[in-house]
Recover the amino acids of this structure.
């Protein structure tokens, strides 16, 4: 949100300069009128009202969709979540999945839901309008194609899906996935920038990039329907490997989730400020 503020300051500065310029004719009027050269002089111009008065640039409303992965009711509604839906590349895939969990049983859907609410509160505090793809952790779905359409439906500037991975116990680190090859303009460039901003913010927050997938914390994917179907800048954050003991402890603690939320909100705000 710093960009609009800078713009406002520049507009204010321009207004001040314009006001200073209008002072010039005071001395200009001291020029003897008998001097014909004084009349057409450009020095007289500032007395005229500006042809285009300074306009204030209102800050653009910012809208972000947060998409907490999976849902608490998915495991009890397998028929619904196994329904095939478009994957965005001509095929189909299940509506949704149950997600993973830590060895101690802390589920990914609960992590994603808690994290999303924390990120939402941080963004809302900065004036961002946040739309969530689900409103509780007790429902079913929504399907990945509905999640993929959420950005356009909300007219969002950015969409961030929140997940955690379930990989081999020795693997660790976060990665940010984006759709590749791109299917819409927003996937070609803006989604890469959003992904890199999230990666940078997580790294700044003290989190290590994945040592088992992607490259430098980023992962190009062609199989994630929510990314494939999105016409808005969209990234999917796999915050940690929930099967790794150290990262399981991190995602299972409120302090850990707060750290993730702080970093992710910072990444989103960095993207919005561009
Ligand atoms: Zn997931």
């Amino acid at each position: 949100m710093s960009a609009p503020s800078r713009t406002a300051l520049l507009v204010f500065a321009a207004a001040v300069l314009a006001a200073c310029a209008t002072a010039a004719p005071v001395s200009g009027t001291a020029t003897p009128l008998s001097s014909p050269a004084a009349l057409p002089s450009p020095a007289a111009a500032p007395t005229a009202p500006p042809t285009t008065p300074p306009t204030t640039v209102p800050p653009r409303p910012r809208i972000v969709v947060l998409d907490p992965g999976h849902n608490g009711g998915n495991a009890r509604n397998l028929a619904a979540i196994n329904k095939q839906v478009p994957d965005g590349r001509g095929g189909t895939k299940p509506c949704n999945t149950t997600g993973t969990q830590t060895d101690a049983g802390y589920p990914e859907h609960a992590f994603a839901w808690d994290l999303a609410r924390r990120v939402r509160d941080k963004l809302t505090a900065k004036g961002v309008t946040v739309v969530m793809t689900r409103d509780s952790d007790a429902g079913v779905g929504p399907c990945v194609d509905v999640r993929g359409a959420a950005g356009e439906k909300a007219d969002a500037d950015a969409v961030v899906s929140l997940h955690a991975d379930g990989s081999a116990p020795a693997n660790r680190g976060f990665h940010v996935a984006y759709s590749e090859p791109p299917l819409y303009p927003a996937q070609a460039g803006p989604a890469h920038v959003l992904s890199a901003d999230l990666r940078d913010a997580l790294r700044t927050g003290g989190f290590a990039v994945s040592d088992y997938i992607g490259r430098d914390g980023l992962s190009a994917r062609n199989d994630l329907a929510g990314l494939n179907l999105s016409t808005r800048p969209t990234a999917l954050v796999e915050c940690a490997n929930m099967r790794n003991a150290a990262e399981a402890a991190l995602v299972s603690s409120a302090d850990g989730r707060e750290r993730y939320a702080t970093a992710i909100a910072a990444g989103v705000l960095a993207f919005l400020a561009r």
Remarks:
- The pocket of zinc ion is lined by residues 69-70, 99, 108, 163 (CB under 6 Å).
- Confidence is low (pLDDT under 50) at residues 1-46.
- The chain is about 40% helix and 15% strand.
- The longest strand covers residues 158-165.
